[in-house]
Amino acid sequence: MRTPTLLFGILLSVSAAQAQSADPIRIGQPSWFSGELISLILERVIEDNFDVEVERVPGSNGEIYDGMVAEPSTYDIHADSWMPNQIRWVGPGQEAGTIALSGTNYRGVDGMCVPTYVVEDYGISRVEDLISDRGRDIFDINGDGRGDLWVGADGWVSQQVMLAKADGYDLTSQLDTVVMGEAEWQAILFDALAARQPVAFYCYQPHSWFAYDYLTMLEEPPHDPENYTLVSPEDSENWLEESNIASASVIKNVQIAYATRLRDSHPQIATLLSQFGVEAEQMTELIFLAQVKEIGMEFVVEDWVAANQALIQEWVRVAQQS
């Protein structure tokens, strides 16, 4: 006896629903703007299209990755994994078969920036110009007589890279490195831009800052593996002295990292992650609208989801067939 087509489709849907665990998906939200944006989009896409509860949980890189492999686990997904920066967590997980990466979501570029008027007014276009006669005295933002360089937020791997670069380029002979949260630095940056004051800082794309034409990324020597060694603070107390970075960083593949157990507990979500992707140019625009125009991340994500339903439904179709 042949099963009617409609009934067969219903049975397939029931089987797929039963295969999905009732446990919530815990998305690790890192502390930078693009990580927050991807976390929100993922949460919305999953909740709108799958019968799965989602929890978005802020955390540091170490907390998220460690939580993905812990027993019991506290995280399932790292929403914005910058590779190879985060290889010290992802690599062991891949070798053990406990962590997997989605396809490349977008390309990430980072380095050091100054406002473009600093290039025009002071002739500073290269990293070494920061400590030249025309540069070393103009970047003092706290009035202590020494220049300042924002290197990122505590816990970022890129902050560790920047500290090593500051040593490798001998910037610390004239500049003090400043560690603070991104939102706090952004307020200082916007005040400096409004007053045309010189500032030097870590920068990365995609980011709302590059929606302006006001910033210039400084030239660095091309990436050279012989001049690019980063020792983790978790591996050595003398990590900074043992590190050596005096060349540009490589272009990053920014991906979604997830615990491989999702392939068994939530197979459709694991497949969805392999389809998911937001273009870097869109990321810059969305972060600009949320952070600079003060529309708010949630409203920006809501508009993006509404405008990209055809794309999202294609991701969902593929995931539901898995």
Automatic annotation (TrEMBL):
Residues 23-306 form the ABC-type glycine betaine transport system substrate-binding domain. The keyword Cell inner membrane does not apply. GO terms for cellular component: ATP-binding cassette (ABC) transporter complex. Residues 1-19 form the signal peptide. Gene3D superfamilies: Glycine betaine-binding periplasmic protein, domain 2, Periplasmic binding protein-like II. Keywords: Signal. One of its GO terms (molecular function) is transmembrane transporter activity. The keyword Ion transport does not apply. This is ABC-type glycine betaine transport system substrate-binding domain-containing protein. It comes from Pontivivens insulae.
